[in-house]
Amino acid sequence: MLEPLCFDGKQILRVQISGGANTPYYYTGDGTKIAYYRIGNESAQAPAAVLNELLLKGLHQTFDAVETKYQFSDYSYTLFEATYKQKTGFAIDKPRDYLSFGMLMGDDTLTYVGALFADQCPIYQSRVFCTRWNGLKKGGLYVDALDNDEFQSNVISLLSDALKFVRHNSSVKWKKTGTGRIEMPDYPSEAVHEALVNALVHRNYMIQGSEIHVDMYDDRLEIVSPGGMPDGKRIQDLNIDDIPSIRRNPIICDLFSRLKLMERRGSGLRKIIDQYPEDVVPLFRSTEQSFVVTLKNLNFGKVSMPTGTDSGIENGVEKNTEKILNTILANPKITQKRLADETSLSVRTVARELKRLRDTDVIRRVGSDRSGYWEIVK
């Protein structure tokens, strides 16, 4: 569309070109063939992952609907079916519902969404890396990270595992009132849940070797998912309330809605904002390769908090040490795995803490690993 305008005393012609549906579009010349796409106000050469999305868009298809090499008969769906039954009250009708949901093509071939919900999810990039950093940035003076874990599984398990990690590494302060007490969590639980759901359902699964990162600092929680906005715009340049609902993975979104893990209305970012007070606004930032949600720690810097704390991590390493020593005191013959279960710490964290406590002569092992016991020296 051509539109004559007067700007700064000059007559100009504005050219508006609507986006086409038969993407990608290539520039061909000088012996090259290059696909470009819009990112913000610029045109950029499309990297491999974006080019793949443009190819699918031109075929009027999305990644989650693409046929895979995996067979439905080789995988189980215990968690998916149990969650569906719990949330809806209905049992899954095999294979009819799997075909209806878009998880299955033909008699026995999985789509990518079918593979992502399988108990033994075969999609390598279906992963979440979680780290509780020591301080306000990655790395610390003496200890880089206070806790970390890596999860590779189906998308339902990834959501559950990531929520547990955040909960374990957060605290809930509280103060007494005349009728009870008011709880003050570091992070609103609904905001964390919504941010993690958005990362799982809207991420670009075609970026090979990618994963979601959950980075916790003293003052904030950052969730980084692969892939920017589906339309190439930058979220920081837009009004949240004016963003249209564009779903990169519509079938994944539909299944999360059926499982009552998200709403269909496309209101996720607004829902996150509404969980925070007006003076503490969550931040959203995107590039062509990533989408970042930053949630502020509501208790950070409040040095005069009254009365108490129920904490998953309090004073970092010291809180983990207290849990481990108290558990050993109650049962000196406890195993590492049992110690992890009873303290709600990861096996890796328990092993690291036990080594540190042994190296500093706080505890020692008496007898063999199988039949011996722990002794607290000091």
Low-confidence stretches: 303-307
Shape: globular
Order of helices and strands: EEEEEHEHHEEHEEHEEHEEHHEEEHHHEE
Oligomer: single chain
Rg is 25 Å
What report would you give on this structure?
The structure is a single chain. The chain is of the alpha+beta class and 378 residues long. It has helices at 48-58, 78-88, 96-100, 112-116, 155-168, 189-202, 250-258, 268-274, 317-330, 336-343, 347-359; strands at 2-7, 10-15, 26-29, 32-39, 42-45, 67-71, 104-105, 109-111, 127-133, 145-152, 171-177, 180-185, 212-216, 220-226, 283-286, 290-296, 308-311, 363-366, 373-376. The strands form six sheets. Strands 10-9-13-14-16-15 form a six-stranded mixed beta sheet, with helices on one face. A three-stranded antiparallel beta sheet has the order 3-4-5, with no helix packed on it. A three-stranded antiparallel beta sheet has the order 6-8-7. A hairpin with a 2-residue loop joins strand 11 (171-177) and strand 12 (180-185). Helix 5 (155-168) runs antiparallel to helix 6 (189-202), helix 9 (317-330) crosses helix 11 and helix 10 (336-343) crosses helix 11 (347-359).
